[in-house]
Amino acid sequence: MENILREIVEENRYLTGEGRVADYIPALKKANPKDIGICVVDLEGNTYKAGDCDVKFTIQSISKVISLMLAIMDNGQSYVFERVGYEGTDEPFNTLYKLDFPHIDKPVNPMVNAGAILTTSLIKGGHGERFQRILDLIRITSNNPNISYNEEVYLSEKGTGDRNRALANIMKARGMLDGDVEDILDDYFKQCSIEVDALDLANIGFFLAKGCEGLKSYGNIDRRKLTSILLGIMNACGMYNFSSQYAIEVGIPSKSGVAGGIMGAVPSNMGIGIYSPALDENGNSKAGYGMMKSLSERLDLRLF
Ligand code: GLU
Fold first, then answer.
1. Which of 105, 156, 170, 184 is the most buried (most CB within 10 A)?
2. Maximum Cα–Cα distance for the chain, whole Å?
3. Rounded CA separation 204/143 (Å)
4. What is the Cα–Cα distance from 193 to 216, expressed in whole angstroms?
5. 247-264: string of b/e by CB count within 10 Å (b at 16+)?
6. Which residues line the pocket of ligand 1, CB cutoff 6 A?
7. CA 24 to CA 26: how far, in whole Å?
8. Active-site residues: which are they?
9. What is the spatial distance between Cα 2 and Cα 41, in angstroms, rounded to a whole number?
10. Cα separations (Å) of 15 from 10, 30, 132, 287?
11. Of all atoms in ligand 1, which is nearest to the CA of residue 61?
């Protein structure tokens, strides 16, 4: 397996020169665009790595899967999806589009920023506790108790997060979002700044691939249903406004983040973690997409 991963890294390395590191959050500009790594955890828990798997980066939007998981465990499926939609979108991840349309009463899905900010607001506990509970769940699902957040990225996001402020404020004004906007955003910025490596992402993917097995409590939902929701949403909305084409080309439920991570879960088979910070025009890792496609083809992982 490690030989295959090494070949996949080399086949796709040229793509790191074709993408661009995210710069709308100033601290993300510091990433090395040449970094590229892939890590796989199979169903027995064996780990395989190639490339830059030890580089730390911020989880960004991949945290939205975990905050959704927690919101559902706290409140149940019906309550959460009365407040946020299920469907994909061809709009970018930070879109304000439609949030002020009179007939729209919720953000389109939990993977765009508006939906994710709303999802975080639904997590039980006040300001600070919501973030701590997301961090705790990321530590459990990644099997890494040492994970923490990156203060510099957090402050950078908070200092420049006016678009996310606009999203939260319009949702509050429209009666979609309850609670203190700045407190909710503070938890959201911090959850995006949680620092991981490719192995951590592969372990989160592995946790999902095993049907979310191993938590002490699932709150208001059965774990199989929880897994179906998370993988279904990742498949439909996990790769921004490229999700459907990605599903056709790769066929693995995945979630990307603007720092260059991709987490993938092949049910009852493996978890995949990828890092390569040079992004394409949709905000997905350019070489990351290439590596996922190669891996899916080489190991015949496509689910449909
Ligand atoms: N913290 C980022 C933002 O809110 C997350 C975006 C992403 O990874 O897609 O803009």
1. 184
2. 55
3. 8
4. 26
5. beebbbbbbbbbbbbbbb
6. 60-61, 93-94, 113, 157, 164, 192, 257-258, 283
7. 6
8. 61, 64, 188, 240, 258
9. 11
10. 10, 19, 36, 5
11. 8
**Span from the CA of 239 to the centroid of ligand 1 (angstroms):** 12
- Rounded distance from Cα 225 to ligand 1 centre (Å): 27
pLDDT band at residue 106, thresholds of 50, 70 and 90?
very high
- Are 216 and 159 within 8 A, CB to CB? no
What type of residue is 36? I
For the stretch 112-150, pLDDT in tens is: 999 999 999 999 999 999 999 999 999 999 999 999 999
Q: For a pocket test of ligand 1, which of 24, 117, 192, 242 has the largest count of ligand atoms closer than 8 A to its C-beta?
A: 192
- Which pLDDT band holds residue 25 (cuts at 50, 70, 90)? confident
Structural contact between residues 115 and 108, judged by C-beta atoms closer than 8 angstroms: yes
Gap between the Cα atoms of 184 and 203, Å rounded? 27
Which residues is 271 bridged to in the sheet?
41, 265
206, 45 Cβ separation under 8 angstroms: yes
